[in-house]
Amino acid sequence: MVMIRQILHLYFLFFFTRSNFVKITMAFKFFSTIGTGKSRLIFRQLFDSVSSTYTYLLGDATTQKCILIDPVLELAHRDFQLTKDLNLKLVYAVNTHMHADHITGSGQLKTMSGCKSIISKSSGADADILVKEGDYIEFGNHKLKVLSTPGHTNGCCTFYFEEHGMAFTGDALLIRGCGRTDFQEGDAATLYNSVHQKIFTLPESTLLYPAHDYSGLTVTTVDEEKRLNPRLTKSLQDFVQIMNNLKLGYPKQIGEWYRMVAFWCKSFNTLSVQFFAALKWKQKLSSFSLWLVILLRPDPGHQASLLIALIHVSYST
């Protein structure tokens, strides 16, 4: 009989108030091998404290094949080392969308492991595999279903793992929140409909794992968010009004993101869209420096890309 092993780490943090009362907070972290037989899943939730990004490792315990969801460039070596420590073969580096708050680690992981990169076709980005609604991402005996959930960006996807009752929502749905919709092709009404039609229609017990959290929370459920999400429990009209009046600051790493965007874009038209999106940030920044490297692949048979332009734009206000 195969035993299911789960290691549960309990971290007890004691904070003494001025009244000498003790407040105990328990933070639960699961480092698990889930399921039995061919369905055994190795699962890790990893965190980048700079961008508050969650990266997820999902591995097939039988075939040793694994994927990483939303890897961060600066921590690509950490993630790759973990796959080696667990005797796993990284087959895909997957992104839920094009990120503006950090640079993806997909390229670095491809260099280190030989894995393939995956992103939504609707993102306008370049990758080894471009997915769309209804596609599956397979690793060993497991597969994730691609759900198109635009609104934060055009190319946002949620990856639904029906076998284990899990979904990886990217920035479409956060724990008691959602991704912003004020730039990068964002649209509040589209996001609202994506969440209500694609995520809230999943079984209510489905565990939801977001791409970010800023308060130490790690996981939620469909049921919780349908009842408790302060934005998405509102009407569509109220939600749009809330999102249009958030007045959020710009992402910390927005400059670095636009410096790298050319390497993601597969066409000049896509790059132009991202370039003009960058210009919208001029009013929000006291100084802004942007480097764009435009790469052209003139023929699929060419293994080397051709450098055709280098543009530097600098703003000071």
From TrEMBL:
<keyword id="KW-0732">Signal</keyword>
<protein>
    <recommendedName>
        <fullName>Persulfide dioxygenase ETHE1, mitochondrial</fullName>
        <ecNumber>1.13.11.18</ecNumber>
    </recommendedName>
</protein>
<keyword id="KW-0496">Mitochondrion</keyword>
<keyword id="KW-0007">Acetylation</keyword>
<dbReference type="Pfam" id="PF00753">
    <property type="entry name" value="Lactamase_B"/>
</dbReference>
<dbReference type="GO" id="GO:0006749">
    <property type="term" value="P:glutathione metabolic process"/>
</dbReference>
<feature type="domain" description="Metallo-beta-lactamase">
    <location>
        <begin position="52"/>
        <end position="212"/>
    </location>
</feature>
<dbReference type="GO" id="GO:0070813">
    <property type="term" value="P:hydrogen sulfide metabolic process"/>
</dbReference>
<dbReference type="InterPro" id="IPR036866">
    <property type="entry name" value="RibonucZ/Hydroxyglut_hydro"/>
</dbReference>
<keyword id="KW-0223">Dioxygenase</keyword>
<dbReference type="InterPro" id="IPR001279">
    <property type="entry name" value="Metallo-B-lactamas"/>
</dbReference>
<dbReference type="InterPro" id="IPR051682">
    <property type="entry name" value="Mito_Persulfide_Diox"/>
</dbReference>
<dbReference type="GO" id="GO:0046872">
    <property type="term" value="F:metal ion binding"/>
</dbReference>
<dbReference type="GO" id="GO:0005739">
    <property type="term" value="C:mitochondrion"/>
</dbReference>
<dbReference type="GO" id="GO:0050313">
    <property type="term" value="F:sulfur dioxygenase activity"/>
</dbReference>
<comment type="subunit">
    <text>Homodimer. Monomer. Interacts with TST. May interact with RELA.</text>
</comment>
<dbReference type="GO" id="GO:0031123">
    <property type="term" value="P:RNA 3'-end processing"/>
</dbReference>
<dbReference type="InterPro" id="IPR044528">
    <property type="entry name" value="POD-like_MBL-fold"/>
</dbReference>
<keyword id="KW-0408">Iron</keyword>
<comment type="similarity">
    <text>Belongs to the metallo-beta-lactamase superfamily. Glyoxalase II family.</text>
</comment>
<keyword id="KW-0479">Metal-binding</keyword>
<keyword id="KW-0809">Transit peptide</keyword>
<keyword id="KW-0560">Oxidoreductase</keyword>
<feature type="signal peptide">
    <location>
        <begin position="1"/>
        <end position="19"/>
    </location>
</feature>
